[in-house]
Structures are given as C-alpha cells and as structure tokens.
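User: Run a structure prediction on this.
Assistant: Running it now.
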Amino acid sequence: MRQKTHFSVAELVSVSLFSLFPPFPREIRTRRDIENFDNFARAGMKPSVAFLLLTLGAVMNVQPVQEKASLLYPYGLEQHDQKNPKLDDGSSKKISLAVPFTFYGKEYRTLYVNNNGVISFDTRVNQYTPDPFPLADGRTFVAPYWGDVDNVRGGDVFYRETTDPTLLARVTKDINQYFPKIPYTATWAFVATWDHVAYYGSTTNKGNTFQAVLTTNTKTSFIILNYWDIQWTTGAASDGDPDTGLGGTAAHAGFNSGDETNFYNIPGSQTDAIINITKTSNVNVPGRWVFQVDDFKVTGVPTEAPKVANSNNCWL
C-alpha cells in the first residue's frame, strides 16, 4: 500500500509556482487516471492542479472508482469483496456457492478465482502460459484473460458472491437488453475483478483491469466479461518482453467445457490482437462480451478478425 506523501514548505512553494506555469505532465496511461482527473474537475480544480495531484500522488488509498456509466460492475473492499493473497500463480480459497451454477449443461457448486485470469470449477489453475482450447486434461473453466498475472508486483484480485438487489437489477437490465427474447431476472451473481494487475517479470507500471460476472436465475446462466483497461498481453516467463508486456505467448480469453468438444475462443486470443479486446464485443458495447452458458450459445460474434495491437479501429 502506498504511504501518504508529506511535502516540505519548499516543496509546497515549488508546487504552487509550478502550477502557474504548468507544462503538460506525465502521460495519463489508464482509464482510472482519466476517472480521477474527472473527479478533480468536478470538484472545481483547475486542470493544472488536478494534473499535479495525479502526478505527485497527493490522493492516496483510493478505492477503485465506480462511475455509473462505467463498464465495470461495482467491486472492491467497499463492496465487501474478498481479496486474493499476494502470490504469483496463486488463487482464492475453494469457494462454495450458495446456489449451483450451470456451465455447459453441468451444475457446479464450487469454484476458484485464480490470479492468472481464470475462474475454474472444482480445481485450481496455477498454469501461467495459456494453452488453446479445447484442453485435453478435462479442466473446466472460463478465462476472462488467461495470462501470467503477478499481483505481488502490482494490482489486486477481488471477488464476491452476491444477491444485492441493486446489482442484480443492473445485471438483469443488461441481460434483457442483449437477449430480449430470453425471459431473465437475475437472482444471484458472482463478481470477480482483476484490478490493475501486473505481469510476471514486469519492469513497468503497466496493469490490466478486467472482470467476470457469473449470474443465474437457477435455470438460465450467463457470463459477462468486461475489459476496462488492457495494457499487457504476456509475462516474461511466457517469452514476453519485460519492458513492454508484449510478445511471446499472448493471453487467452474464452470458455472450456472440459470434454474436448465444447469450447469457445474469443477472437484474437493468443495473438497480439488480444490487447484490443477493450474495443471488441458481441453485444455492441466495446469491451464487453456476454454469453448464455448453461446450454452454451455463441451469439452476435462478428465475422471480421480483430485488428492487431495498437490499432485505433473499433471492432464490433
């Protein structure tokens, strides 16, 4: 956790003078930076002061920002989330679900939230370099972004099981919008969020923020994948560049039933293009993919391949 910053009188004077003649400060790298800057602006601060506060780290111990228009559902300690241990290739404890969740026609009552971007049923997944689906070893899991996360170097992995009416109402509204022909009212949800997590071997402050939401009404099940900020694709142990987090065996996103027949790979998986998953969608919302998973169905998937990394094109 960051320590609070204390300024001397000389430093405060220099900050005041600096604000009179502000150069354009450091690059705003993440959507969280943009959100923080927007919060300062709403408070009536001059842009130069807001930039300085962000640059100097004057606002400390900030919980994940939750805007109403955010792609992400609320998460963090304020939402009573649990948090995974700081452990490379680690995972949550075994989580017993209050209601069964149906995935590829089978009911599951336990799962693990794995640091390396995987929610697995009945067994942990410590593997850090992803394999393409289908897997031959019978593991059943959803991979929001399977790559070599190292939360020791940065970031947190949050999760919670919930029946909060406000959250369920939002989930229900979204599902009804995307699947208007399927009657659905969510009665349960499980929210897992990887918040600005670093990659193994990183020499930078790059971080990925993404989320998986499992929801059911005890009969029909959906999984919502949200990609808010993706800055890296590969850890150094997967032949990635420690200075960029790119190259090597890139991250994988998709679903594996465990039976070697039923699976789905989100386009761009294990290619450089996966970094642009924040711009892709099967429900016309950039950065969001939604699937009915009790009897797994693929709907709304574009036929055009995603663009390679660093493209400015939006693929919907």
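Residues 1-69, 311-316 have pLDDT under 50 and may be disordered.
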